[in-house]
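> forwarded from #structure-qc
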């Protein structure tokens, strides 16, 4: 066999053997912008109606939260029903997030808290908080929420945020800065 053909054969064999590799040699420390998918970490029964909150068109931005940091926001409900769970799209930095993420959810001043551990959560997917007390929600009611990282967190986690729809106030960060971004949320209503 001629030397050029031999070298070509070796290169072809090496490239075919590398096709099974699953990781790139350099991995980004930022989570990728998530694709929108209807899944959540809480099983959705046939008795559940999922309602996604609105965001304006544009690129997603991770709002990183470290230990004891929080982000808060509010919106007006566009739906009515019995609210059982509240989900927020998160990034767990390729499954490295530790500690927990807590939710304080207030509807017309009536508040309740829930917490979810981040180990085992799905990266770039919804982290769903089951409400201890399902609550009736009317169209046009104000929903306030605060998402807080636990004090034992050593690695960051992020809330995926997108441009706010017209007329909606953006997230407020731990530093007290109001952004022009809102998280992608999913409300779980009883059918």
């Amino acid at each position: 066999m001629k030397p050029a053909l031999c070298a070509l054969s070796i290169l072809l064999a090496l490239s075919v053997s590398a096709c099974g590799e699953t990781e790139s040699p350099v991995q980004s420390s930022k989570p990728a912008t998530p694709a929108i998918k209807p899944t959540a970490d809480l099983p959705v029964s046939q008795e559940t109606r999922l309602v996604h909150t609105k965001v304006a068109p544009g690129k997603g931005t991770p709002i990183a939260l470290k230990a004891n940091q929080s982000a808060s926001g509010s919106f007006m409900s566009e739906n009515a029903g019995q609210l059982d769970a509240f989900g927020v799209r998160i990034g767990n930095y390729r499954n490295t997030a530790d500690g927990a993420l807590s939710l304080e959810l207030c509807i017309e001043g009536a508040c309740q808290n829930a917490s979810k551990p981040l180990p085992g959560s799905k990266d770039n997917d919804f982290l769903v908080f089951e409400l201890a007390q399902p609550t009736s929600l009317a169209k046009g009611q104000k929903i306030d929420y605060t998402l807080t990282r636990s004090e034992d967190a050593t690695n960051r986690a992020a809330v995926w945020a997108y441009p706010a729809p017209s007329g909606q106030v953006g997230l407020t960060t731990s530093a007290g800065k109001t952004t022009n971004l809102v998280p992608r949320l999913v409300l779980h209503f009883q059918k």
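QC bot note: Residues 59-190 form a domain with the Jelly Rolls fold (CATH 2.60.120). DSSP finds one helix and eleven strands in the chain.
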